Amino acid sequence: MNTHIEIPVIFLLSFAVCLILTPFLIYFSKRKGLLDVPNHRASHETPTPTLGGLPIFVGLISAILFCIGIKNCGTISVLMLSLFVLLGTGLLDDIISLKASLRLLIQLLLGLAIASQGLRFTNFYGFLGIHELPIIFQYLITVFFIVAITNAFNLIDGIDGLAGGLGFINMMVMGFLFVSQNNRIDYVICFGMAGALLAFLFFNFRKASIFMGDTGSLILGFLTAYLCLKILVVENVEHFTISGPQRLNFIVGLIIVPTYDMIRVAIQRLIKRKSPFSADKTHIHHLLTKTGMNHTRAAISIYVVHILILFFIFWFRDDYNWQGLFAGLTIVILAIEYPSLLQAKLFLFRLRQLLSKRNNLINENRFL
User: Fold this and answer.
1) Please, what is the average pLDDT of the chain?
2) Count of other CB atoms within 10 angstroms of residue 115
C-alpha cells in the first residue's frame, strides 16, 4: 500500500475503533460501578469511569493487525506481549489497586525483556564525556529509562487531556520521523496510537467523561520509551539522516516535560522528608490549576511548552552545539524559572482574592 494512503488508513482505523468503543465502555463502567470516586487529591468532582486505556489499546492493536498482519507481528512479539501484560496490569490496578512494588517489578521485567532484544543505550556520543557504554551499564540504563518514562507518563496523567495530548504530539512527531526513514512497522505503531489517542481526547478533554487510568498511561509511557529506543538504535543507518547526538537530543525533547515534572516533585518530597512515591498536588498541572487556570488552559499551556522544545530541537538539528545548548537552556528554564513563575502567579492570585474580600467587607460596612 502506498505510504500516503496507508498513513490516513492507519490513523482513521484506530481513531474509529476507539471512538466507537469508548461510549460503550463509559456506559458499561457506570452500570458496573467501575468509577474513580473523587477524594481530597482528585482534580475531578464527580465519579468518572477510569478504564479509557482499553479502547486506546484496542484501537492501536486493530491498526497493527490490519497493516502488519498476525504473521508479521513476530518481529515485534516482545513489544506485543509487553503491551498485553501492561494492559492486564493496568486493568487490575484501576479496578482493585495493585501494590506499587508489584507494578514496579512487572515494569522492570518488561524493561529487561526489551533490552535483551538489542534495544539498548549503547553510546552517549560524548555527552558528559561518555561514549561507548559497557554492556552492564547498557542494560541498567535502558531498564531504568523504560521504567522511568513509563511512570513519568503515569504521574503526569492528572488533569483532563494532558497525558493523551502529550502522547498524541509525540506519536505524530515520531511517526513522521519513521516515515522519513522508511521504517514501516514503527510508523504504523505511531499513527495507530495517535489515532486512538485523538479519539480518546474527544471524551477526555475539557470536562472528562472518562479517564485514561493506569491502563492507558502505563501503555502510553512504555510505548513512548520503546519508540525512543527505536530512534536511538538505528537498523538502516544509510537511510537515517539524523546523527547519534541529534537523536539523543531529540529523545530528550520528547520526554523532558513528564520526566522533569517527575524528578522535580520527587526532589521536593525528599526535601520535605516525605517518600518520593507519596501522593500530593505539587505536579506542574496542579500548580497551573491553582493559579486559576481550568484543565483545558493548563493542558494547552503544557502542550505549547512541549511543542516549542521539539520545534527548536528540530530547528537546530544541523548544529549539534546549538542543539545541545538549547536543550540545556530548556532544562534550566523548566527546572528553575517555570515553577517560580507559577508560584509567583499563585501568590498574586491569592493576594487579589484577599484584596477583593477586604474591599467587599469595607463596602458592606459602609452601608451598616
Assistant:
1) 84
2) 20
- All three cell numbers of 117, joined, read 532484544
CB atoms within 10 A of CB 160: 26
Number of domains in the chain: 1
Segment among 86-100, 198-212, 283-297, 352-366 with least mean pLDDT: 352-366
Q: Are 154 and 221 in contact (CB under 8 A)?
A: yes
Provide φ and ψ at 132, rounded to 5°: -65, 135
User: What's the confidence (pLDDT) of residue 334?
Assistant: 62
Give the residue with greater pLDDT, 39 vs 135: 135
Instruction: Report pTM.
Output: 0.86
What's the DSSP call for residue 134? P
Nearest of 255, 251, 254, 220 to residue 83 by alpha carbon: 220
Specify which residues 123 forms β-bridges with. Answer: 132
Q: What is the pLDDT of residues 237-246, one digit of tens each?
A: 555 566 667 7
Burial of 367 (0-12, 13-18, 19+ CB in 10 A): exposed
CA distances from 55 to 35, 58, 298, 354 (A): 16, 5, 25, 46
Domain enclosing residue 183, as ranges? 3-366
Rounded to 5 degrees, φ, ψ at 293 are -70, 145
The residues, ordered by sequence, that sit 6+ positions from 6 with a Cβ below 8 Å of its Cβ are 67, 188
Spatial contact of 16 and 200, defined as CB atoms under 8 Å apart: no
Residue spans of alpha helices (H) in the chain: 3-32, 53-67, 77-96, 100-116, 135-156, 162-180, 184-204, 213-232, 244-271, 284-290, 295-315, 320-332, 338-366
C-alpha cell at 200: 480518546
Amino acid in position 334:
L
Report DSSP letters for 69-83, one per residue.
Answer: -TGGGGGGHHHHHHH
H/E element holding 36? strand 35-36
pLDDT in tens, 9-27: 999 999 999 999 999 999 9
Q: pLDDT-based confidence at 323, cuts 50/70/90?
A: low
The per-residue pLDDT for 284 is 81
Q: Are 292 and 274 spatial neighbours (Cβ–Cβ below 8 Å)? A: no
